[in-house]
Amino acid sequence: MSSLSIHNTLTRRKEPFVPLVPGKAGIYVCGPTVYDYIHIGNARTFSVFDLVVRWLRASGLAVRYVRNITDVDDKIMERARSRNEPIEALTERTVAAFAEDCARLNLLVPDSEPRATRYIGPMVEFIETLEKKGLAYRGANGDVYYSVRDFPGYGKLSRRNLDELRSGERVAVEAAKRDPLDFVLWKAAKPGEPSWPSVFGAGRPGWHIECSAMSCRELGETFDIHGGGWDLQFPHHENEIAQSEGANARPFVNYWMHSAFLNMGDEKMSKSLGNVFTAREVLAKLDAVQGGEQLRFFLLRGHYRSELSYTWDLLEDAGNTLRGFYTALREVNPEEGPVDWSHPLAKRFRDAMNDDFDTPIAFAVLHELRGEVNRARSPALAGLLKALGGTIGFLQADPEAFLKGGVSVDAGKGGATVDVDALVAERAAAKKARDFARADEIRRQLDAAGIVLEDKPGGVTEWRKK
Ligand code: AMP
Ligand code: ZN
Q1: DSSP code string of 327-345
Q2: Which member of 19, 21, 383, 440 lies 3.0 to 4.6 Å from 335 by CB, making a disulfide possible if both were Cys?
Q3: What is the pLDDT of residues 149-165, one digit of tens each?
């Protein structure tokens, strides 16, 4: 029987996964900064860790899965200001939209989703500990900084040399810092910005301290797995290590996992480059029933440590392959039940997943199994296909309903179709989240397609063709 190996960014090697407590695993994933809809690059990272959690659970481990929400940040403040919207309204709306996107991608709801603004107390305590240990100091401007030169292991995750980093042009030198690499733990309050009282004066936390304080509260001083996108290695995770190991004087994380980028052409998809597609924008172009699993499959069929380029062709190909799986399950009614791990194909699937989550091989095995189902027309084999897919969050829909797709109405304009029910549901959710701009946009979109909406008492919306 094979056992799980994980590529650990800290050692740059695949290592056997040995949990801290036998039979259990704690995992912390850096979540979204809630000022806007997630893009499909973010969706890739969140899908990867959803797959990791599912596979750990399928392997029999009791997993505690924590993914935070960053709800205090410069970008949030800027966006709220530019939209003339209270910060809390913006973050609430964005958190609700994020939950909707996650549900469409069939992402598990984490066991805990700590929000930064609800953990200010623990963060301040954490900074006090760092100050007592001589790792934090107060700058002349009222900010509190981490003193990087006083933490001997700095740079060990991203394997950067401090002197090279210091001389790098990208490091902005701020007068209040003793060293250009020092980073802010607590920002002194400025007029018009949210702030909390603290022993350091009124202010707000820096970004990095949130993950050290919240992971410690949720999973303990040392835990098994910490995940995030590739770009978070430096400085975010390097700084988390400095904070947590500096304060607690023990190892912070045993396995660091980083997922590779989703690219547009040769460039990382990112808001700052302006080359993003939001998850909901892509989902709106796909079938209302099939789209979520199709996007999930597109994001996960490649290996999580390989970069992936977004193209419409690849997305369509994912849809075709997925429909192939469901067609086999429609033709041969799957026997329900747990995975028969003694079957050779199940073993190969497990070996692939245990080899650092090698999804390309795992899906190739499912493909082979699909061929067997078609040939042998065996309900037991169809059941195995469904159950194996289920270990990583696939193939659980009713095949008939999946293949039929979303209920769509012919708009009569060049053959374009709109999924009325999905749009009506999205509009109701938008109204609930007080996103009236989006709600109006949907009404206009449906109107253009010849659909009239009638809002009835009790929040029910009926529709008819004009
Ligand atoms: P953010 O909200 O920008 O902090 O990003 C949330 C998560 O998405 C982080 O783990 C990022 O590393 C990850 N991420 C951002 N852009 C991409 C991308 N193009 N591909 C994969 N992951 C990404
Ligand atoms: Zn983080």
Answers
A1: HHHHHSPPPPS---TTSHH
A2: 383
A3: 999 999 999 998 888 87
